Amino acid sequence: MAGAAASSAEQAKRRKYENLDSSFIFVPFGVETLGPWGPEARALFKELSKRVIESTGDPRAGSYLGQRIKGGGGVDNDGVVSWSPTTVLAVKS
Highest taxon of the source (predicted)? Predict the structure, then answer.
């Protein structure tokens, strides 16, 4: 099933960080090498895309964000998102 590895990785990250201080918003972000994203990654991306589009007024901003994430980088301006494929996302609200 497409996305099964990403979903499994998200579950493993959730278990690994279950004792993380509640002052953090934790969202495991599973992305497979050939493209499928885990369900939590998709939901977070959808929310972040919406916020980026609203803040920039550019309807293409969500696509740019997706390209950046798929390329192994995150949006680092103002610390909105910082990540690497082997670590956890840190999202400021």
Answer: Eukaryota
- Please name the residue that has the structure tokens 């885990």: 38
Both tokens of 21, joined, read 């201080």
User: Which residue numbers in the chain have pLDDT < 50?
Assistant: 74-89, 93
- In one letter, which amino acid is 73? G
pTM over 0.90: no
Which parts of 2-90 fold into alpha helices (H)? 4-16, 39-56, 61-70
* Residue whose C-alpha is closest to residue 4's, from 28, 27, 37, 26: 37
How far apart, in whole angstroms, are the C-alpha atoms of residue 77 and residue 81? 8
- As for how many domains the chain has, the answer is 1
